[in-house]
Amino acid sequence: MVAVRACRRKGHKMDFAGFMDAIAPLLTAAEPTQESVRRAWRLLDENRKGHLDIEDLSRAVHNFGLELSVEELRDMVAYCDGNGSGEITFDEFYQMLSRNQ
């Protein structure tokens, strides 16, 4: 709920950095532990597929009341997608959050 409120306070449009700032409160530790990142992951991976794609991110930003273009969502996936699969695995998500601390 903290992340949703932060997103809504900032307006309906947000870039990738703003989105990451909004979900940062979900990471309760000073440094992201796997468990704290997993809590954020579970919010994004609603279907428990084990990976995130553009559709998952689109649903998440919509649920947060945000508007991101398909191009911005593709950029988010590309930024995190270390193996070039077009999807974000938990390990890639964790690595991305860890390097942004």
TrEMBL record:
The cross-references to InterPro entries, in alphabetical order and at most eight, read: Centrin_CML-like, EF-hand-dom_pair, EF_Hand_1_Ca_BS, EF_hand_dom
Q: What keywords were assigned to this record?
A: Calcium, Repeat
Query: What species is given as this protein's source?
Result: Durusdinium trenchii
In this chain the EF-hand domain maps to 32-67, 68-101
Lipoprotein: is it a keyword of this entry? Answer: no
Q: One of this protein's Pfam families, by short name?
A: EF-hand_7
> Source organism's superkingdom?
Eukaryota
Q: Per its record, how is this protein called by name? A: EF-hand domain-containing protein
Give yes or no: UniProt keyword NADP: no
